[in-house]
Amino acid sequence: MNTIKFLAIFTTLSASIFSADFNYLGTKQPYSVKEISTAPTPNGYKPFFVNHLGRHGSRHLSSPKYDVSLYELLSIAEKENAITPEGLKLKNSIAQLMEIEKGNYGLLTEVGVKEQKEIAKRFYENNKDILEKIL
Fold first, then answer.
1. How far is CA 72 from the centre of its chain?
2. Which residues are CB-neighbours of 39 under 8 A, at least 6 positions away?
3. Is there a contact between 105 and 23 (Cβ–Cβ < 8 Å)?
4. What string of H, E and C letters represents the secondary structure of 97-135?
5. Exposed e or buried b per residue across 63-101, where buried means at least 16 C-beta atoms within 10 angstroms of its C-beta
6. Hey, CA dihedral for 114, 120, 122, 125, is it positive or negative?
7. What percent of the chain has pLDDT over 70?
8. pTM to 2 decimals?
9. Which residues face 108 on adjacent strands?
10. Which of 21-30, 70-79, 120-129 has the lowest mean pLDDT?
11. Alpha helices of 1-109 — where are they, by DSSP H?
């Protein structure tokens, strides 16, 4: 009975995961802005404080950990003639990724810099009353 419950839950979760539109792929996914609506300040009130909790922006890999480990594993497989043509393609792709990441681990990507500038612009546009007083 427990096996049947497990399989039913697993099948349901798998179906929902694989049918998802993959909008939420993790922390490395670029931030896409949907239409934003803001509420106007109520009559008789003036904003005086804004608390912003923001996203850090799209970044390069955090550290040379998973890319290097996978590259080394595929290199061992290649030396032992135990790698498929797809494995060789993957190894080459990882080598290209490592070249891009060299010296950039943890830094904002170009997309991340653009994200931060756009967030700042929207923040300013939505909070001019407060920010113009202090800038």
1. 25
2. none
3. no
4. HHHHHCCCCCCECHHHHHHHHHHHHHHHHHCHHHHHHHC
5. eeeebeeebeebeeeeeeeebeeeeeeebeebeeeeeeb
6. negative
7. 76
8. 0.60
9. 59
10. 21-30
11. 2-19, 66-79, 85-101
